[in-house]
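Q: How would the structure tokens look for this protein?
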Amino acid sequence: MTEAKEAILLVGGKGTRLRPLTVHTPKPMVPAAGVPFLTHQLARARAAGVEHIVLATSYLAEVFEPYFGDGSSLGLHIEYVTEHEPLGTGGAIRNVASRLTAGPDDPVLIFNGDILTGLDIRALVASHAESGADVSLHLTRVEDPRAFGLVPTDDSGRVTAFLEKPQTPEEIVTDQINAGAYIFRRSVIDTIPAGRPVSVERETFPGLLAAGAHLQGMVDSTYWLDLGTPQAFVRGSADLVLGRAPSPAVPGRCGERLVLPTASVSDDAKISGGTVVAEGALVGEGARIDGSVILAGAVVEPAAVIKDSLVGAGARIGSRTVLTGAVIGDGARVGADNELRDGIRVWCGAVLPDAAVRFSSDE
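A: Here is the predicted structure in token form.
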């Protein structure tokens, strides 16, 4: 079969690096470009011919099904399997295997719920079929691979090793890394041990390689971003709005801004850089917002300046306050005349008085 009709989507992570965005919302459900991030992944899988998707859920698992239902609105059949004890990436794959209907040699697409990518899914499936591999991996090239596990391949694209994060320059033998999307031969999934935590990256793949299995790498260096940090998430949302990252699920035309229908933006506010203003949000006179995410029901008061930041649902940003690279949790109140910079996070429901945080002008 040269088309993957089934997919497993791993969405069980707690998203601890994304807090406070993930205090009330699982990471895949945090809105990016106006819809839950997961919507973009599901829509891209559907566009590549996938019909049946099993979501492997754990943290805040009860949130997914009420939103997506049976998947019919996206042209998909979606099922949900919840882990009550975390099983790791490999354990999660094995845990949902009983829901698959594919034959032993059929391809099953598996992808992580926190990667924004322009991967050509059909090309990965075709490469898998041509090579006859047991598992095919999407690989991408990065300038600095020290934060990632390395995946060297031979001239034919066959994977030769899985190397832990390199500690010294000599250990950087390739710039290719595991990009978090795989095609498994259906029968290989059944070889993963059941009922215990398993890491697909540290146990399953190296074990298969040691046993002589054929693991194929396909390098696709189109858009790729790990949305693990708030700064990356904000950038990913902006890139979706700007059209740099492809998705059929962006609710509107790509451009400098995406203002959802029930939002209210003052005529003289300047919204740019792929900013999203979500449902029911208000942006006051003279406000300037660049490359940011303003979630549902948030209020940005007049003359506030927001850059590369995320303002949570129902939060309020006071007049003349400046946010740069900040994350404001749901329902927080930041008073007027504050300046918050460089990765600062304000927790959900927190209240910051007027002029409480300022930086000296000579910095």
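The first helix runs from residue 37 to 47.

The mean pLDDT is 91.

Upvote if useful.
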